[in-house]
Amino acid sequence: MADIAFSSTQQSVSDIQSHYMEMVQRRRLYGGLMLLIFVVMMVAGFYTVNERNAGGFWEGLHQIGDYPADVLSEAWENRAEMPALLLKYFPALIETINIAAVSTILGVFGGLYLSLLGTRGLAKWPRLIPLFRRISDIMRAVPEIVIALVLIFVLGGGPVPAMIAIAIHTAGALGKMFSEVAENADLKPVEGLASTGATWSQRMLLGVLPQVAPNYISYSLLRFEINIRASAILGFVGAGGLGYELRNAMAWGPGRFDEAAAIFILLFCTIVFFDQLSSRYRNRLTEGQAQ
Amino acid sequence: MTAVDINASKLAADSLFKRKRLVGFAIPAVIVTYLIYIFFSFDVAGLAGRANWNNAVTLASDSWSYKVHVTRDNRSGDVVYAVEGERKGLYPDGERPDWVSGDDVLTIDLGGDHIVRYLPDNRTEIEIPGFPLIEAQAEGRKVTSNLPDELPDWISASDRRIGITTEEGRITLTGARTEVFNYFPGWELFWFTLDSPYYGQSFTSIFFGQQIDPERSNVSGAANDFWYNKMWRHGDVAWAIGETILMAFLGTMGAAMIALPLAFLAAKRFSPFMLIRATTRRFFDFVRGVDALIWTVVLARAFGPGPLTGTLAILITDTGTFGKTFSEALENVDQRQIEGVSSTGAKPLQRYRFGVIPQVVPVLLAQILYFLESNTRSATIIGAITGGGIGLLLTQAIQTQKDWEEVAYYIVVIILMVMFMDWFSGWLRGKLIGRKD
After folding, report:
1. Closest CA–CA distance from residue A66 to any residue of chain B (Å)
2. What's the N-to-C CA distance of chain B in angstroms?
3. Which regions span the lipid bilayer (chain B) (predicted)?
4. Which ipTM was obtained for this model?
């Protein structure tokens, strides 16, 4: 009796083992297949992209340092004028930062409204939650350049089209992130305020915002950092600021490379500076929350 | 003793409240001041003067409507019908829109009782309700008409050119040609151009009806004519979308593959040498700080314009970003799991494989998939600068400043593309590492 039971356990152990090995092998097979497909996609992708490019990868690879070398050597020759050039493009830098800052501020307000109106439990009109979510999805999906180019056609070049374009995208992107935070907010203060007869905006301002403020500020800082890059890029398609000056300086070609170098330096330093600044503040905010 | 303590803490609390109150007012005040400064710095007030509202009207009306031109060449007397006045939209010989009738006297019915007649000898009659019949004749380089001296603002007239704009359409007369534009809502010839046998056929008659073109089966013929539609170039748009997604995919994945080994070098736990760590981190910071814009500019010099340049620009910038976040993830790895694995006698490589990788993979994948979506947008923008993908098509269409319906089409396609990538990366994340909540 006991013997039979013992042999049946042994049976099932070896069963389990063979099952397990089989499963492991199947997993390995699937994993290997996935890897193979991935590698094929990467190789085929690079091949296609290379085919459709004006110059090939291998022909271009050894020239990669030529342009930076030209720019740097010319900038080094004219290094005496560099401070003057940096000063000359400083207003453009301020404009780029201003575009990023204003669009972040506008985007934060837009995102705030979209998130509060699109979060369950907080929304003013609960039936319209899907509508506000779709609005923020679409605003997030539009690349800045689309709105910027269309607005440049109507409003003419300058910082305003870039500002509007970035603000719209920022509002959509922050709307989603804010709403994820707001979903986890404690509803008790809101209910408490509601019992005193507070209006919707009072409930949000006094009940929800203090809870979510550290996260919101942290996300906004991250957005500001992203927006500086975006505003520089949009400048390149004609929306003012440092990117616009860069395009002009590049159009002049050799002989004016020192100007391009000055812009490169300003842009690089600005991005690194705000990067460090925002990551320091964000760390402080999230640490403060953890304690 | 206690009384003093209470007083002191009350004082502290009061000053704290005072400070908070001050901050509560100061922050909005600073923001408002800054916005006022921006209002003047960006010259928002002067914007209304600089803005070109005619452009806005063209854009708004042209993006959802089209016009059919009926043009008479006043020298030869030939009449040509063309959608948007383009060669691609030319009506084939012997065919014309059904709102044009007559042979010697061509009657063009613009709708709403607005009627234009092309008479022999380059004469034109225009009937507009509530306005006397307009008669005009083109003679050499001049246009004569019976228009009075006092004109309403929708008619502009000189002895060289007469322009009439009504709600139903526009009429322009010059010595060389007489043109009527009739407006219709919608995107013209979106499915098939006029030379395709499938033009004007309904969906059901293509799929279930009789064979229209004797040489091709209905479905493949229609698909072919749609794909190679000369007006909208659906095939090229699909290629451009694919190219943009490809740029984002290759850039993101390539960056992740390069960043992962480097991230080990930058993480304190796995890289004991301070110098290597610091160098890798500075490398990440540098690559990130230079930014996609400058990389695009620099790489375009070496590789020429095209999708490869965009791919590499995304790849290089994101190597920095990924390196930073990956190394942070590696720093936060739980030591116990590694110890557990090494207690079974695992070698270092096995310790990485079974102790470290399973812990960081979810974080890494989430990051990569998020960037895949965000890089689709970047690829659109970089494509506009370096000339690849849908970004290039969009800038080209905007620069011609007349094909606004194409611009609208591209915008819709771009939004759908980004939303699809957003959904797809979310779906993939769900499949690979489970839902977030």
Report:
1. 8
2. 53
3. 21-40, 237-265, 352-372, 379-401, 407-428
4. 0.85
